Amino acid sequence: PYPFLFRTVNVHILTPTPFTKTLAQDRALVYTALRRGNLFIAYECLADARGFSFTAFHPHTPEARVIMGEEITWRDGLMLEITLPQPAEIHLVKNGKVLQIHQGETLEFPVLERGVYRVEVYRPLWRQPYAWIYSNPIYVR
Fold first, then answer.
1. CA 119 to CA 66: how far, in whole Å?
2. Which residue from 70, 88, 108, 123 could staple onto 66, CB 3.0 to 4.6 Å apart?
3. Domains identified in the chain, total number
4. Cα(98)–Cα(92) distance, rounded to whole angstroms?
5. Distances, alpha carbon 8 to alpha carbons 70, 105, 139, in Å
6. Could you give phi then psi for residue 21, rounded to 5 degrees?
7. Is 11 left (phi over 0), alpha (psi -120 to 50) or beta?
């Protein structure tokens, strides 16, 4: 049962650089990503979640984009951007409550106030929505 289980629910960590195949450097990348919360969890039996992205940015400074586990200062024009590898039902959650539900591969959402934002994504299985992806939050201060 363990090989099957290890292929079903996976933690995807996001690192600023690719792995180097040097144990000490790669270990530091992994531990830093885990410590910062730069990750999401996916139920891979429903679909491959590689390519999922949840970021926040100010349109005038898009290079200052933040990812899951990070924080950004709220100001007018702040946007959240969600990208999926394939269409699904996106639930944008703010402070523990569903803020918007959207069907598709992408969602851009204007942030109107501070809060803790995260994403849940659902895919149909046997005509029922099943949880596919759970993001870590982005903190809007």
1. 15
2. 70
3. 1
4. 6
5. 26, 22, 28
6. 70, 20
7. beta
For 57, 75, 112, the CA distances from 61, given in Å and listed in that order, are 7, 12, 18
Cα–chain center distance at 10: 13
**pLDDT tens digit sequence for 43-63:** 999 999 999 999 999 998 878
Q: Which residues contact 101 (CB under 8 A, 6 or more apart)?
A: 89, 90, 91, 92
Q: The domain spanning residue 50 has which CATH number?
A: 2.60.40
Is the overall model pTM greater than 0.70, yes or no?
yes
**What residue numbers bound the domain in which 99 lies?**
2-140
**Residue written as tokens 């803020």?**
99
User: Model confidence over 113-137: pLDDT tens digits?
Assistant: 999 999 999 999 888 999 999 999 9
